[in-house]
Amino acid sequence: MSDQAYIDQGPLIPRNRAAHPVPYDPDYKTSVPRSPNQPLLSMESTLSEETGPRFGHSMLCPLDNNLILNYAKDPAKPAVGERILMHGRVLDEMGRPVPHTLVEIWQANAGGRYRHVKDGYLAPLDPNFGGCGRTLTDENGYYEFLTIRPGAYPWPNRGNDWRPMHIHISVFGHSFGQRLITQMYFEGDPLIDRCPIAATVKSRSQLDRLVAPLDMAKARPLDFLAYKFDIVLRGRRQTMFENRMEGL
Q1: Residue 7: which residues within 8 A CB-CB, separation 6 or more?
Q2: How far, rounded to the nearest angstrom, does the alpha carbon of residue 208 sit from its chain's CA centroid?
Q3: Taking the model in full, what pTM does it have?
Q4: Cα separation of 163 and 233, whole Å?
Q5: Residues with catalytic annotation?
Q6: Domains of the chain listed by start with CATH number
Q7: How does pLDDT run across 172-185, given as a tens digit for each residue?
Q8: CA distance 107 to 186
Q9: Is pLDDT larger for residue 87 or for residue 234?
């Protein structure tokens, strides 16, 4: 045991496995070859995974959480699209803030296209939009990103499937071995109920937790709308990542 005094952070709440998406869903075609055929194995994490490497706070730049400007060749030519503020808090299961946590996002542009070599969608790329950002939560667990609302896009699943507008989110714990990846959808998007990926979440209440409500209290008149998305972690143990049975 280390010299640091032990702090009781409360009971560990067991993971609710029923709340997770099913690994095998024929309507989501790629889940068929990807879903495991054998029982999962729980493996202990190593010391290096629990202690480092860790993202250096000094590596953040002033515009890292401003996707409207952080890829623009000229500040006078910002990214094209509907400007929005994405904001919220990272909290543990007891509602306590998780400060100084690295939050990263990536997304499609306003036309629904990613800046990725394998994205062949017909929508054009925006030369002033990179689609990636990062920030650290403050002492109250708060984070925010200024970005554009991503467009919906088609994907080769069934005959005419489209992904709802969404933003990918990555939250790092104390090291790169502790990582949670999720998605944020937008309130009122009719494609959520038509998406085979979203439909793998069988509990409607759980799916609704991935939908960010419009937050007019944080919207700025004549500038941007706001969407509030709180990220709630399971507890003080390590985040389950792929085949790990532990929680955060």
Answers
A1: none
A2: 15
A3: 0.87
A4: 25
A5: 114, 153, 163, 166, 168
A6: 25-31+67-232 (2.60.130.10)
A7: 876 667 788 999 99
A8: 13
A9: 87
